[in-house]
């Protein structure tokens, strides 16, 4: 599959996630997106368990393909692939969380690598040039900040009654980052193709 097509997955993955939790939330009596954990929608024995699990597995596979596409474009554009490879922490975590639902212990263990995800936008601040990717500094800083707000779940004294809201900051952050990467890497791919075409003339 062409790299540009894989780069479009950044537009597709976030809607799959948000639509899934919206549908599962509606199917779960008494569920609140402000107070309940996202993972509760996939708890063993719930009627949304298999919908939730299937969705997370699909998201994981698509995010790996997304990484492959971005890495190909990055290499052609002379960019470091390190910030992109860190997205795999998300892929691995969401796969583990899906395959091992609550209340299994492996759910939390395999879901923990995603705590490294803020490093993806943070490292791009230092490894990617503004001249190559416009507005990277602003976009990366915003994405990293919003993802990091998800760590408020580790501080019960802050918004103690809104665990679900705190957790969703993390998901809003990676969604923004994925969409931004799609936009910019599709632009890079088109620019690279145009340059190659001119060189071949």
Radius of gyration: 18 Å
Summed up, the domain count is 1
Structural class: mainly alpha
Number of helices: 9
Structural summary, described in words:
With 201 residues, the chain is mainly alpha-helical. The chain has one domain. Helix content is 68%, strand content 0%. It has 9 helices and no strands. The protein has helices at 3-7, 9-27, 49-77, 82-85, 88-99, 105-111, 119-127, 136-149, 163-200. It starts with a helix and ends with a helix. The mean pLDDT is 94.
Q: Could you outline the blueprint of secondary structure elements for this entry?
A:
Layout: H1 3-7, H2 9-27, H3 49-77, H4 82-85, H5 88-99, H6 105-111, H7 119-127, H8 136-149, H9 163-200
What are the salient characteristics of this protein?
mainly alpha, 201 residues, globular, 68% helix, 9 helices
Short overview:
It is built from nine helices and no strands. With 201 residues, it is an all-alpha fold. The protein has one domain.
